[in-house]
Structure formats: structure tokens, C-alpha cells
Write a structure and sequence with these properties.
The chain is an alpha/beta fold and 236 residues long. It has one domain (36-234): 2-Layer Sandwich (Nucleotidyltransferase, domain 5). Helix content is 40%, strand content 14%. The protein contains nine helices and six strands. Strands 1, 2, 3, 4, 5 and 6 form a six-stranded mixed beta sheet that branches. Helix 4 (134-149) links the parallel strand 5 (128-131) and strand 6. The longest helix has 21 residues, at 202-222.
Amino acid sequence: MALLTSRIRRLLGPSPGDPFPFPPPDLPEPPHLPDGTPWRQVPFLALDLETSGLDPATDAILSIGTVPLDGDRIRPGQAWSSLVAPPSGHPIPERSIRIHHLLPDRLLGAPPLRQVIPLMLDRLRGRVLVVHVQAVDHGFLNRAFLRTYGVPFRWPLVDTARLASFFAEQPLLGSGTGPHRSLRLPDVAKALGIPVDRHHEALGDALLCGEVLLGLASRLENMGRGTIRDLLRAGT
């Protein structure tokens, strides 16, 4: 384990002031669900990140929002969000500020990522993660887990962008509203008749992601594909 931790340290490079502990003994295990479990019986957690850019190697997480779903019921009363302080000396590009409007002074006093990730993980316990565009969110979460716990981020995940793409590739399944020409979260939501509000705000986009999941999973179920295995195969 010491050799593995040392190797990961070298890969990530130095991170002054950012502790690199061993994985705690109570680090939760990803949920293991039988393939035939109906998706409506599965607990989910919709998550969105706002970041300073799209490259996990050079950019930083600036805010996290999560909304739990118990099967087909969204639990907005249990929604959670947190701003995240960027690493010292990390500039926030103007192009990203124009998107998420997170000015540097809003992040003053925000907790560092190493304190926020455990809070997010507590909410993820026992739940399947839901994001929009896995390549972005998973990359940032993986780097955060390596820095915080020294282990990669491995969790069952449904990507609503990939799920929307699955319908776009199969016109018979997507015929309810026609193929989704754009896979942007607000465009997919609008195609499903879901109102769009507070786009590019972590909590608002997490809620929208959860609503999109319900719309697409219901459509998949109507075609006789209603298990968590069906959902993960179409949305991963």
C-alpha cells in the first residue's frame, strides 16, 4: 500500500497544504444491485459540478450540487450544495465565470475540496450516481478521490447524456419527442417537456439532471426495459 500511495503521489505531483491520507476504513463500498432490480426501486443521487474549465488535470471544482432520488421520486428537501475553494494561486478564467458566474470573491471562505468530498460521499452512500456527460464529471471526481483518499473513484453511474444519445440512435425508442439533436442538458430537458431554470448552477443542474433521468428511464421502461441493468447499459 505504501508503494502504491507513493506512486500516486508522484503521478499527481505535490499539493501543498492538501493532506493525502490513507483510505479511511469506513470508506463506503459502491452499491451492488441485482441486474433484475426495477429501476424504480433504486436509490439515485443526481450530481452536478461547476468547474474552472474542462480539464481535471489543470482545472478545479468550484461548486457541487446533489439531489437524491428514491426510485422515481425526487427528494428536493434533501438537496445539498457547497461552494469549493480553488487551490491557492489557481486563477478562474473569465470564460468560465461567464458560464457559471462564480466570481472569486464568492469563493472566499469556501471550504477546500478535501473537506467537501467527504460530505458529498456521505450523500452518495448506497446510491447510484447520475450525471450529465460522464467524461467531465467522472474525471474531476476521480482526481478528487485520488487526492483525498488515494484511491480512484469507482461507482455505478448513469450518464443522462449517453442515455439521451441512446434514444437518438434508435428512432423507434425516441419517437415520443423525436431524436435529441442536441445532448446539452437544457436541450434534452426541453425535448422531454421539462422546464429549465437556473442552468449552470450546480444545484439547479443536479435537479434538472434528476428530472431528465426520470423522463428517459420511464421511456425506456415503456419499451420493456425497466431494470437497473437496462438503465446502466443504455446510460453508461
